[in-house]
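dumping these here so i dont lose them again. two proteins, back to back, each one seq then C-alpha cells. dont judge the mess
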Amino acid sequence: MVFDRCTSVQLRYRFRVYPTAPQRQSLARAFGCARVIYNDCIAARQHARKEGLPYPTAAVLSKRLITDAKRTSARDWLAEVSAVVLQQALADADRAYRNFFASVQGRRRGPRIGPPRFKRRAAAQSIRFTRNAHFRVRDNGRLRLPKIGDVKVAWSRELPSEPSSVTLIKSSTGKYYASFVVTVDDDVDRLEPPADPQAESGIDLGLKDFAVLRGGRVIENPRFFARLERKLKKAHRELSRKAEGSANRAKARLRVAKVHEKIRDSRSDWMDKQIKAIVGENQALYVEGLNVKGLARGRAAKTVHDVAFGMFLTRLESKAHRAGRVFVRIDRFFPSTRLCSACGALTGPTGLPGLNVRTWVCECGAHHDRDANAEVNIRLEGRRLAVEQGLFAAGLAEN
C-alpha cells in the first residue's frame, strides 16, 4: 500500500472471480507465458554477465524476447496472450534486478537481497493487466480481460474510482482473485473523532496475551496455527507418503494448502477486526518497535510466527494514518517492562528468568502487573514523542 500525504493514496481491492473452464485454460496459458518471459529475461542477463557483454536494457529485451520471439516457430504461442501481460512480466524482472543492485550498493533499506532467480511452475500464479490492456468492468458487473473474456466477479463493495491495473491471482488452492489498484483522496477513509477526544492507548504486544491496551484491557492470543497444527501435521504425513507426480499426491498437496489457507484467512480476518476496533476507539496509538526477525529465531519462533506481529503493526499503522489518527512507534530498546510507571525507576524483572515474572513490586511500593505497567510506559513515552514531533495539539498531551 503506497501513501501520498499530499493528495492521494493508492489502495488495493481484492475480489473472488469465477472463470469458466475455457477462461481457466486461457489464464493458465497467460500464467505460463508470463513465467517464460520472466525466465528468459533472467537467462539473457545472466548470459551477458558471464560473457562480459553489455548489460541488455529492458527495451532491448522487450524487442528480442517478445516482439521478435513471436515471429519464430519456437515462441509463436506468445501471441496467444495479451502483450501487456508479457510486458509486465518483463517489467517485474527488471524491477527485481534494480532492487538487487540498489541493495548491493546500500541504497535500499532492509536486509541485503540476492539476485533474481528463475520462476518455477507453482500452484500460486499471477499476471497483471494495466490500462494499456483496455480491461474494464462492464455494466453487468463482469470483468473484461483481453484474450480471456468476461469473467464473473463476486463484488462485495464498489470500487471508489477507476482502477489503474488489475492482477489476476490463482491461489495454491485453485481459487481465483482479481486485485484492483485504485487511486483515491487521502482522506477517503478518515474517521470521525472518537467520543472521547482525549482517548489514547499504548499497545503492549506479547505471546501469552496478544495485546494489552489502556486500562488493562486484554486481547487474547487466538493461536490460529496452534489450533490447526495437529490437522496440518496429519495432512503433511499423508502428502509425504504419496508418489511423486501422482494424482493422489496432487490431492494431498491441495489438502495441505487448504489448511494453510484457513489459518492465514482466519488470522487476517481477526486482525482486521481488531485493528478496526482499536483505531475507532482511540485518537492516538503508541506501539513498541519489535525486532520480529530476531524474536522468530528464538525458542518461541513458532508462536511468534503465529501471532504475526509484523503484519499487525503494518496494518495498524496503515489504518491509523488513513483514519486520521496519531500513530507513534517508540524505540525497541525502551525499557517498558522494567520501568516503574509510578516513580520511573528501573526496578522491574530482568534477564530470562524475568520473563516468567508477571507481577512485581517497586521499591517505591507500587504494585505492577507486568503487561499493564508496560502499556502505561509505552503510552507515556509515545505521547512525549508525539508532542516533540508536533503530531497533535498539546491539549491531548496534557491529559
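---- next one ----
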Amino acid sequence: MTGGAFGIEGLVAGSAPGMAIALILITPFIWSIPTALMVTELATAMPVEGGYYVWVKRALGRFWGFTQSWISWLYGLVIAASFAALFADCTSSFLRLAFSSTVIDDSAAVRWIVAAVLIVGFGLLDIRGAKAVGDSSKVFAVMVFAPFITMFVLAGIRWAANPEPFWLPVTPPGTGLLGAFGLGLFIVMYNFLGWDSISTILGEIEKTLKVIPRVMLIAVPLIILAYLSPVLAGLTSGVDHTKWGDTVFFPELATAIGGRWLGIWVAIGGMFCAAGLFNAMVLSNSRLPFVLASDGYLSQALVARHPRFGTPVISIIVCSVIYAMLAFGPFQTLAVTTVLLYGVSLLLQFTLLIMLRLKVPEMVRPFRIPGGLPGVIVISLLPAPIIVVAVLITARDEGASFLVLAAILLASAPLAFLITNTVFKRGQPDRLTHEMSAADWAEL
C-alpha cells in the first residue's frame, strides 16, 4: 500500500503546510477507510482469485465485470509505470547527493534504462510467486522507514530546542481553504489509493477470512503515519515550503535536518520505496489478464503457468513489456491519470457492494460493514464527491490534457469487450465462478 512518503512532496508546495497536514489526516476517512471496509466485506464474502472482477460480474453482469477488470488493468499498468519512473527519480536524487552526478536528469534514455532494469528484475521476482514478493517487501520496508524514522527523531529534537509554528501558512497566499484543499487533493488521493489491489491475489492467500480484516485494521493507521511523520519532519527543516519539488525532495530535506549522510540514506530509501511499490503492483496487476484469459476473453497463451512456481508467467511478461513502454512518461502525469481511472473503478465496486446487499441479502458475510444498507450507502457515497472535486480543480489548474488520455482509456473498455467477445470468447461460457464448495469454506 505504501513505500513511504516519496511522491507527496508536491502537496506541501501546492497547498501550503497547514492544508497539507489536514489533507493527510482527512483524506483517509473519506477515501481510504470506506474503500478498506468495502474490500474487507467483499473479500471475506467472495475470497476468490480475480477479486473485484468476479465480484462485479456477479452483481452487475459480464459486461461490467469485464469493464471493471479492463479499467483496473489499465490503471494498474499506468501506476506500475509511475513507480518505475519514481525509481528513476529516486536513483537520480541518490546520484546527485552521493556523486554530484546528473546523468539521469540529463538523458531521457538513461532514465528509461534505469526504469527498465527495475521492470525486468522485479518481473523475474514476481514469476517466483506471492511469497517471494512478500518476503522482499519486508526487507524494503525496513530500508525505507529506518531513515525516515531517524529523520523524524532528529527533526523533533531540533524543533523542541526552537519550537516554531511549522504548520503555517495554512493556505497559499491568495488561496482560500477550498482552493488549497483542491490543489493537493489529487496527490493525496494517489498516495492513499490501491486498497482493492489485494483482491486479485485472494486465491494465493492462506486463511483469507482472518487475514484480510486484520491487515486492513493494521494498515490504515500505519499508512497515515507513514505519510504524516516525514512531512512534519520536513516542515521543521527550515527549507522554504514553496521550494519543495514535485517528487523526491525528501533527501534534500533530510540533508538540511541531519547532514549529507542522512540525505543519502533517505535517497537510498527512496529507491527501495519505488522498487517495493512496483514489486507489489506487478503482483496484483499481472493477475488481471490471467483471469480474463481464464474466462475466455483473452488469448489462452496468457493462462500459461510457470512449471515450477505456478505463476502466470506469460501474463507477467506481457505486463512488464507494457510497463517499459509507459515508463517514458513523467511521474506526476502518470499519477493524475491513475487517480481518475482508479476513481471510476472504485465507483463500480461501491455500486456492486450496494447491489449485492439488495440482491443477495442472505450471502454469508464474515465481515459486514455496520449500519445495514444505510451504512453501506453512506460509505459508498463518501469517495464520490472528492473524485469529482479533484477532477474539476485539476482540469481548471492544469488543463484538461490528462482527461483526454483518461477518456481514451475508459472508452477502450466497451470496444475491448466487443473485440474480445468476437475474437476469443465466441459465445463460450465463463470458466471462472464465484461459487464455493463447503470444503472450500471449511479450509478458509
